[in-house]
Amino acid sequence: MINRRDFLIRSTAFAVGSTLLPSNVFGNTAGSRYGVQLYSFREAMANDALGTLKQIASIGIKEIESARSKDGHYYGLSPRDMKKACDDLGMKLVSGHVLLDENFEKTMEEAVASGQEYLICSSMPTNGQNIDNYKKVAEAFNKAGEACEKLGIHFGYHNHEYEFESDQGQVLYDVLMDNTEPDLVHMELDLGWVIVGGKDPLDYFKKYPGRFPLWHLKDMDMTKKESTEFGKGGLDIPTMMQNQHASGVKHIFIEQEEYASTPLESMKHNMVFLKNL
To answer: How many domains does the chain have?
Structure first.
């Protein structure tokens, strides 16, 4: 993992060198379709979902990933109304964070109605930081993935930092990767939590090529162990963006949970940072 000084040196050097690279090296496509995880706007979405979606669309966000709230998976809107709101604003509801629980069948039905492509389990469904539990979870994930595929949607998992702890000399996230079926369990790699967990996302791109169709692009203050605006933390974002192909990423969702001022201002900063790459 590089320190802040090395990050700045590498970023500056890369900014100079990038003029020699193809113009689309950083983006998914020309005019990159970056997305946002709506947990970044959790209070605003709870207070005014439609108004907040309009603000998000106004800064160039094209894809949306929803998150559970006290008003359900779609902030009090029906799945179809959530889809229509995004469609009307030129955005697409791609994914949603959910729990793998006793209500999962209903969750799948909602996802189908919303038109979204992915259902992402947002946290470990059972306690136990040990190999046996992670193998059991992997089996549950495979079954959930199979059920989702039958309905034409994809199941996946979003990591935090605790999955990178070890048991009996094995990294638990690796146990999860090794025991899930790649065609049934589609991993959403939160790059910020990977580095907080003491690991390098590039190592996972190499070890499990093509296994990460979704990213959470999140810079992290490594002292506070919390998210921050792009370029202010410990994630080498230019290098991550150079290695999209190795990871297999199709959708990049920006997520930020703490802010220098407001969520909207932070997201504007992040979008400008990506544009300047």
So the answer is: 1
